[in-house]
Amino acid sequence: RMLATPSNKDPHDNAPEAIEADVVAMQGSKLVTLKVREDGQGTTLQGVEAIFKGGAVGTVVWQRTPLLFVLLDDATGSREALGGSAVVSPRANVTVAVGPDLVGRCLDARGRPCDGGAAVRQEDKLPMFGAPVLQRDMATISKPLHTGITAIDALTPIGRGQNMLLVGPLACGRRDLALDAIVHQSKEGVTCVYVCTQPDHEAILSALRGRGAMDHTVFVSAGTDPTPAECVMAAATGCAVAEE
């Protein structure tokens, strides 16, 4: 996702301070399903913090009223350890550090450096799940994003700020195409964000480093064996970083 004008609007500005919810299911060791109690239904809660009675903390990664799907910060081991209920804070947005310090770094799904390098500055942050930019607020697309791939640049050119989906069957070369386009951006002065939701993220990271692309790229990894919830979170983190 490439947005021409980032949005810093908080989607929870008019929400109550706290909403109670009950644990109804747990998938694996980190994904919990909550059911919001009736008085709290109708509030947008994606991207906010949930604190469980048992002390665990997590992030609401998806919402389907009255259900919330929460990815825990750390595995708890059992549903019983959660304490049966949680308090969701609509105004406690989970945020991601953004800015030029992230270029060249590898981040986890929550936006934390996972490459063994120095800590990043936390002065500039954006909500992990920020409010989408309305079409009327987007800048006009007037400049091309050259990929360096003649067939694309000549026949289906991409504009800076445009959403472009790359679709194809397995093993058709989509990844190589994306990597080639990222490598070419070193000549265009464009910063790239690559979100990897596959377990072989080390191979992709190695390829980017080997071709000198990490000098203008932020790499976000969903993990070595990511769950769907971790993939959603990694994608949201990547979008927040890119919007800055």
From TrEMBL:
Residues 148-243 form the ATPase F1/V1/A1 complex alpha/beta subunit nucleotide-binding domain. One of its GO terms (cellular component) is proton-transporting ATP synthase complex. InterPro entries: ATP_synth_F1_asu, ATPase_F1/V1/A1_a/bsu_nucl-bd, P-loop_NTPase. Transmembrane segments: none annotated. GO terms for molecular function: ADP binding; ATP binding; proton-transporting ATP synthase activity, rotational mechanism. Belongs to the ATPase alpha/beta chains family. PANTHER family: ATP SYNTHASE SUBUNIT ALPHA, MITOCHONDRIAL. This is ATPase F1/V1/A1 complex alpha/beta subunit nucleotide-binding domain-containing protein. It comes from Hemiselmis tepida.
